[in-house]
Amino acid sequence: MPRIRLQPSGILFQVPAGDDLLSAAANTGIRVPAACRNGVCEICEAHLTSGQALNTRNQQPIPVGERLMMCRSLALTDLELEIPAVMASGQYQPRTFQAKVVDVRSISHDVYRVELQLPGRRDVAFHAGQYLSVNLPDADPCYFSIASSPSAGNIELHIQASPEWVSAQKVIDALTSGQDVRVELPHGKACLAAAPAKPMVMVAAGTGFAQMKSLVEYLQETNFNHPVKLFWGVRKHEDMYLRSLAQQWHNDWAPFTFQPVVGDDEDNDWGGHHDQLVRAVLASGFDWSTVEVHASGSPAMVYTLMDALLAAGLPESAFFSDVLEYAPRG
Ligand code: FES
């Protein structure tokens, strides 16, 4: 299968025989701007910088250095294309929006599911696994993972809040006030600009599940067929606020397995510690040199997991977590 490299993002994808470049990119989850899909609107334009490609309109080869429409081009060899509109992980510039709060509902004893509508949603690009900030007047920004796939119409958040947790409770109060809220997105590099060509292991603690939900929904849309395993650790059964959804993925989506890890199930004092979750991940028997790991939870959990997995053979470049960015180790 020819391999296509997009520059300047460096994103790589493969084109199955007979597929046009736009369809192949979309099937890998790469967001190339497009409209007509018929060579007319020129929105999917790229420049061919190396390789041999064929224009399917006139069946003519496309000279290197010329522009092509990705929806109307086939790859005859590996190609390199220049298309600045396609960005790599973390390269979209964050922008602020007035978001309309469409729904806020309590889905557990302390987690709320929030749905936001953004103006001009079609033009707001983010990658699966990125996060946003809710910017209330006179308050520091509060950061939340986006729980929905980049293709979803509305943006979903999972917010843990209780009256003792003042900043999060303030956000819930603002979201339920009936007013629009100011949000800034996208943030975060621990995301997927394209589906990886290897098994994925996801490790979430608490509401870290939100980020994994975005990744899972995105991978499902790209027909990802490598194994995907989700470990979700919580302190008590009632904290696993969307267990039925994770179980449904497990039942309905062949590549996916779900392993809940509940502190209460073990005869020990879990007490918010993360060792049990890390032990479960390590015991799963993956060949760590061949997988990609995404982790979301407290810095203590993420660094304990990372150290254990790197010692077990995971390459450092295959471990992704927002914690590495917002709580770097000194
Ligand atoms: S999507 Fe319109 S030219 Fe390709």
Helix segment count?
7
Q: Tell me how many strands there are.
A: 19
Q: Quick one: CATH superfamily of the largest domain?
A: Nucleotide-binding domain of ferredoxin-NADP reductase (FNR) module
The level 1 CATH classification of the largest domain is: Alpha Beta
Bound compounds, each kind once, are:
FE2/S2 (inorganic) cluster
**SSE succession:** EEHEEEEEEEEEEEHEEHEHEHEHEH
Question: What is the CATH-assigned architecture of the largest domain?
Answer: 3-Layer(aba) Sandwich
Morphology call: globular
Tell me the β content: 25-35%
Query: Unreliable stretches, pLDDT < 50, 5 or more residues?
Result: none
Helix content: 10-25%
Distance N to C terminus: 43 Å
Task: Report on the biggest sheet.
Answer: 6 strands, antiparallel
Order of strands, widest sheet: 12-11-14-9-10-13
CATH fold node name of the largest domain: Rossmann fold
Any idea what the radius of gyration is?
21 Å
Number of domains: 3
Q: What structural class do the secondary elements suggest?
A: alpha/beta
Mean pLDDT: 92
Structure described in brief:
With 330 residues, this protein is α/β, with parallel strands linked by helices.
Structure description:
With 330 residues, the chain is of the alpha/beta class. It has three domains: 3-82, Ubiquitin-like (UB roll), CATH 3.10.20.30; 95-187, Translation factors (Elongation Factor Tu (Ef-tu), domain 3, Beta Barrel); 200-326, 3-Layer(aba) Sandwich (Rossmann fold). It is 20% helix and 30% strand. The protein has helices at residues 21-27, 166-175, 209-221, 243-252, 275-282, 299-311, 323-326, and strands at residues 3-7, 12-14, 45-50, 53-55, 60-62, 67-69, 73-75, 79-82, 95-106, 111-117, 131-135, 142-145, 155-160, 181-187, 200-205, 228-234, 256-262, 292-296, 319-320. The strands form four sheets. It has a six-stranded antiparallel sheet, covered by helices on one side. A five-stranded mixed sheet has the order 2-1-8-3-6, covered by helices on one side. Strands 17-16-15-18-19 form a five-stranded parallel sheet, with helices on both faces. Helix 5 (275-282) packs parallel to helix 6. The longest helix is centred in the middle third of the chain and has 13 residues, at 209-221. It is globular. The protein starts with a strand and ends with a helix. The protein binds FE2/S2 (inorganic) cluster (FES). FE2/S2 (inorganic) cluster (FES) is lined by residues 34-37, 39-44, 69, 71.
